[in-house]
Amino acid sequence: MDTDEKRIKHLEMIQGVINRLAGNSFAMKGWSVTLISALIVVAVDKGKGEFALVGVFPALVFWILDGYFLWQERLFHQLFNAVRLEKMQKPEDFFTMDTRLFLKTAPSWLHTTFSIGKKPNTLLCFHGTVILSVLIAVKILN
Q1: Which letter, b or e, does each residue of 20-45 get, where b requires 16 or more Cβ atoms within 10 Å of its Cβ?
Q2: pLDDT at residue number 20
Q3: How far is CA 70 from the centre of its chain?
Q4: What is the pTM of this model?
Q5: How far is residue 130's CA from residue 112's CA, in Å, rounded to a whole number?
Q6: How many CB atoms lie within 10 A of CB 111?
Q7: Which residues contact 94 (CB under 8 A, 6 or more apart)?
Q8: CA 5 from chain center: how many Å?
């Protein structure tokens, strides 16, 4: 297998990981909405608005997990670009999946999860809306 074929296979491997991470992020959002909706329905059914407050904890957990998957995805994008731009030339670099090389150049996990910056943070928008919905449901039910 020549160098170009190795590079293409390596890029395919990295892209597979990126696709799985994006799928995990999508699943986190789906589970979050499903679970929180169920908790609000139970709160309405029981007539106890404060029960819906329980939904804040899993919403935060899903937010943090979603942030982790997005952070990992960004690290793998940097690895992908390094391989694509042929910055990884040594034989031991072929087929590496080690993203630690990019920890200094990528935003941290916490920054990725909670950042409020120039670019809109989709995690903040999505999961913040879920938590706000829980708080609104509690207020309406009480």
Answers
A1: ebeebbeebbeebbebbeebbeebee
A2: 96
A3: 3
A4: 0.86
A5: 18
A6: 13
A7: 6, 7, 10, 88
A8: 31
State how far the Cα of 48 lies from the Cα of 22, in Å rounded to an integer: 36
In residues, how long is the chain? 142
The encoded tokens of residue 51 equal 């029960």
Distances 124 to 8, 54, 62, 121 between C-alpha atoms, Å: 35, 19, 12, 5
Residue 2 main-chain phi, psi, to 5 deg:
-80, 175
pLDDT in tens, 66-120: 999 999 999 999 999 999 887 766 766 778 898 998 999 888 898 888 876 666 6
Whole-Å CA distances, 33 to 42, 49, 127, 142: 14, 18, 9, 22
DSSP string, the chain: --HHHHHHHHHHHHHHHHHHHHHHHHHHHHHHHHHHHHHHHHHHHHT-GGGGGGGHHHHHHHHHHHHHHHHHHHHHHHHHHHHHTT---SGGGTT----GGGTTTSPPHHHHHH--SSS--HHHHHHHHHHHHHHHHHHHH-
